[in-house]
Amino acid sequence: MSEDKRKKDIAEGQDDGKAKESRRDFLKKLGVATAATTVAPAATAKAGSIAEALQTHFRLMSDDEKKNAIARLEKRYTEQFSKQVTVADTPAPEGVLFGYALNISKCIGCRRCVEACVRENNQSRDPAIQWIRVLRMERGNNTFELKELNEGSPSSNPLGDYGIQSGGHADKHVGLSGSTEHYYEPEQVPEDDAIYFPVQCQQCEDPACVKACPVRATFRDPNGIVVIDYNWCIGCRMCQLACPYWARRFNWGEPVLPNEDMNPKTHYLGNRPRMRGVMEKCTFCLQRVRDGRYPACVEACPVGARKFGNLLDPKSEVRKILATKKVFRFKEEFNTDPKFFYYMD
Amino acid sequence: MISARKYVRAAIFFGLFALVTGGLLFQQMPEEAVAQDAAQDDSGSAAVQEAAPDATPATSNAASVECYESIKDATKLPKVDNVVPKYGYPNVKCSPTTGAVLWYGDPYYGTEPMGEMPKFNDKTDGDFAQAVIRPRVEHLKTLIQTNMQCSSCHPGADPATQQNDPRQLMMHQDIIADAQNLQHGRGAIWCFDCHNAANRDTLADQQGNEVSFNESQKVCGSCHGDIYSDWRMGLHGKRTGEWKVGGKKRWWTCTECHNPHTVQEHRFQPIKPEPPPALPRGMSEDDFKGADEHGGH
């Protein structure tokens, strides 16, 4: 559309005596005009309607716009998954700051939290996306032997020795735990020689991911949960890069979610099915906790290592843990102030 | 008309399928049946019931799935479809690989109120007003494969129980392999420190009060006071339901996670973990192992 024509359109709009047309309304018209000619109907059904593509940020929507956006999504998901899907916009409860506590001395590394999360939050099954990673660390994986202390890389190579080694072992630091891994697959857990450390979104007070987002698609909700408006996300993955906890997952491919596995109770900012090219992450099961339920991972843990509650309520389980147990936060030095606490008995 | 015919054909097909699988299951050992059921839990049985909801209700019930919560083969929970009709939720979703409960559609399924708990009037006072538990008595009936209570074989007090002298048991080796060498308390206690000699259907605490199998915490707590107070506060053990203080919660009692007969060997009976995440695309198992040998990431 040429510059002249655009000016003409706007002028016509004003001549008719209508209220001044906003830039967004104009863009909408423009979008509809171009999309209608170029996008095939089948593709639009999959990717959502044009109106959905043009809707504004969830926090800027008026009540009517929210209602329309949710109706559009419900219709689309209900058709896509052949069952009645609800998309809620339950508001955040008043006077609540959600906190999470995880007992690493109890965790047995069974990964039931991971699987529960996948079933609750409608993650893509293929390519498989999981929001929780359970790290395994070998117990006693530290060495103080003199022999090991003075051998190790950099060893000589054909190009010459350019590495600087002032003692110690370059691959395996003496006295430090060597490596963690999350692909472990023993017959039974807990193993005698291992400890387990589940990591998921820490719901920071001062989140690096929110600062990194160039379009503010990710933000903290009033309960302290960092959420994403998937429709507003442009898929630049800056937040993934900024997060020190490896908590964010990107939909590189078109998500595959079998109809019978799909959880039809969803929330706009929570577990509604995502599309290709958007970021997703743990939301403490927003769709559940705003309705009063525990997150799915808390309920799935067979040893009761996971605790959840309101940090503003001194009688809550989390506050009692903070008051009586040995508590630490993961990577505290980043000053992100997580609301996820690890503790020991 | 065509679609109706298709539906009938599908219903007949799935009906036959359910009958055949049902027949196969009956011929197998119970453990294998449970494992196989669990394997087809999320995909197979769901598809059967979705395709033919009213054609084969009886057979789909026969092929019901039992999943376990914390202790394998001991804390079983039957999977029931459409317990929450609003969302079509089953009461639980179970792991296709391990048969473990992964997800609760209805956290209160099969529960009953916890009943009276003693008041301590200090900070350890739990909020028991809306507490529910899953009864353990039912489990004890199925443990011996019949619907008998313990008292049908052990009526009244046995004079031998007065002697504080464990003997080799003729039965119940599945529960306790060597009764003369009970490791709970490392030899300091024996059977009738917890089991009620006068009424075998119950437990007895240190004062000799009769305690139901559903309320094991009252017996366990008489020795393990520190854990008991943590449990009352909600710090030890598992809860499901509502996160709010004073909300309706299901409390896991001691014996739903710990087996008191083997607790010294394993505080928590080891279980099979869920499968690991997929390796990044293009990365093979060998690549990964190599990376680990060279210091890992």
Task: Throw out a few tags for this protein.
heterodimer, A: 345 residues, alpha+beta, four-stranded mixed sheet, three-stranded antiparallel sheet, 12 helices, 29% helix, 15% strand, globular, B: 297 residues, two-stranded antiparallel ribbon, 8 helices, disordered C terminus
Walk me through this protein's architecture.
- The complex is a heterodimer of chains A (345) and B (297).
- Chain A is α+β, with helices and mostly antiparallel strands and 345 residues long.
- Chain A has twelve helices and 13 strands.
- Chain A has a four-stranded mixed β-sheet. Chain A has a three-stranded antiparallel β-sheet with strand order 4-3-5, with no helix packed on it.
- Chain B is an alpha+beta fold and 297 residues long.
- Chain B has helices at residues 2-27, 30-39, 41-51, 57-62, 137-143, 216-220, 225-233, 285-293; strands at 66-68, 76-78, 92-94, 101-104, 112-113, 131-133, 203-204, 210-211, 239-241, 249-251.
- The longest helix of chain B is centred in the N-terminal third of the chain and has 26 residues, at 2-27.
- Chain B is built from eight helices and ten strands.
- A four-stranded mixed β-sheet of chain B has the order 5-6-10-9, with no helix packed on it.
- Chain B is globular and about 70 Å long.
- Classes of the chains: A alpha+beta (345), B alpha+beta (297).
- Chains A and B meet through α6, β4, α11, β11 and α12 of A and α3, β4 and β9 of B.
Report the span from N to C terminus of chain A: 67 Å
Question: Ends of chain B: how far apart?
Answer: 61 Å
Mean pLDDT of chain A: 83
* Quaternary structure type: heterodimer
Structural class of chain B: alpha+beta
Our estimate of the beta-strand percent of chain A is: 5-15%
Helix content of chain A: 25-40%
